[in-house]
Design goal:
- The chain crosses the membrane at residues 229-249.
- By secondary structure, this protein is α+β, with helices and mostly antiparallel strands.
- It folds into 2 domains: 2-26 and 214-257; 31-204, Superoxide dismutase, copper/zinc binding domain (Immunoglobulin-like), CATH 2.60.40.200.
- The protein is 33% helix and 23% strand.
- The protein has helices at 2-26, 102-109, 151-159, 191-194, 214-217, 223-257, and strands at 31-39, 46-54, 57-65, 75-79, 111-115, 140-148, 163-167, 196-201, 203-204.
- Strands 1, 2, 3, 4, 5, 6, 7, 8 and 9 form a 9-stranded antiparallel β-sheet that branches.
- Strand 2 (46-54) and strand 3 (57-65) form a beta hairpin.
- The chain starts with a helix and ends with a helix.
Length: 258
């Protein structure tokens, strides 16, 4: 009889652990992230980014200013490296051409994971889709879009290595993308068109969007966590109850036999 009760207790205990971990494993990247954009290449660009993730869906808002007016600016989630940004003082300009290029900055923020286009494809293939990136009318823009992100991008957010990067600078102050130094990404484009202008690591936001429960109750921000905790407590209680029942039964059997 002891063995008969010991096995169900172990089985219930084993079933409890998936309940404790499943919710976290399925959504460990979900939530809100923010980035404060700092200038790169002495561009003078600044701004903010906000990203809300739910599964494979990303809702993105970017506000940037100090940009080349009237020109498009490529912007991306970069992933898979250190999750940081190059300095603004050109100390990362390894080849001395006057620019911190995408290649020179990649050791900090990694490769393109998502192209933040205004419409259509958002894959790395659209990394230089100039006609589908925001145009900085008056030197600034606000970008808003919801789209699907790939698993590697989700993993980068979860790992803390996702970075928001805005490209395009006017190094010589001519009012256009020009100059003799050409981009290493596309030799038909001047370096000014593709060089990073601003960069910011995407970190978990303490503000995020309005909690589902509303500002008065504050329930929305933690309701998911509370539910997961309740499931975990319930599972552990079931294990404890089963174990206690088995012990009590064995004690009764021992008393009867005595």
């Amino acid at each position: 009889m002891r063995k008969a009760f010991a096995l169900p207790t172990v089985a219930i205990a084993a079933a409890a652990f998936p309940l404790l971990t499943m919710g976290t494993a399925l959504a460990d990247h979900d939530g809100s992230y923010q980035a404060t954009l700092g200038a790169v290449n002495t561009s003078g660009v600044s701004g903010t980014g906000m990203v809300t993730l739910a599964g494979d869906q990303a809702t993105v808002t970017v506000e940037a200013s100090g940009l080349l007016a009237g020109s498009p600016h490529a912007q991306h989630f970069h992933i898979g490296a250190q999750g940081t940004c190059p300095s603004n003082d050109l100390s990362d300009d390894a080849d001395g051409d006057g620019f911190v290029s995408v290649t020179e900055a990649a050791k900090y923020y990694g490769a393109i994971g998502t192209s933040l286009t205004t419409e259509g494809d958002t894959s790395p293939d659209s990394g230089l889709a100039v006609d589908r990136f925001p145009t900085a009318e008056g030197g600034s823009y606000t970008y808003e879009r919801t789209f699907t992100i790939t698993e590697d991008v989700q993993e980068s957010f979860a790992a803390g290595t996702a970075v928001l990067v805005v490209h395009g600078i006017d190094k010589d102050g001519s009012g256009a993308y020009d100059g003799d130094v050409m981009s290493e990404l596309d030799p038909s484009l001047p370096m000014e068109a593709t060089a990073p202008a601003a960069c910011g690591p995407l970190t978990v936001s303490q503000m995020g969007t309005m909690p589902a429960g509303g500002a008065d109750t504050g329930a929305g921000a933690t309701s998911g966590i509370e539910n997961q905790a309740a499931i975990g407590v319930g599972a552990l209680a079931a294990v404890g109850a089963a174990a206690a029942g088995a012990v009590a039964y064995r004690r009764r059997q021992a008393t009867d036999q005595a």
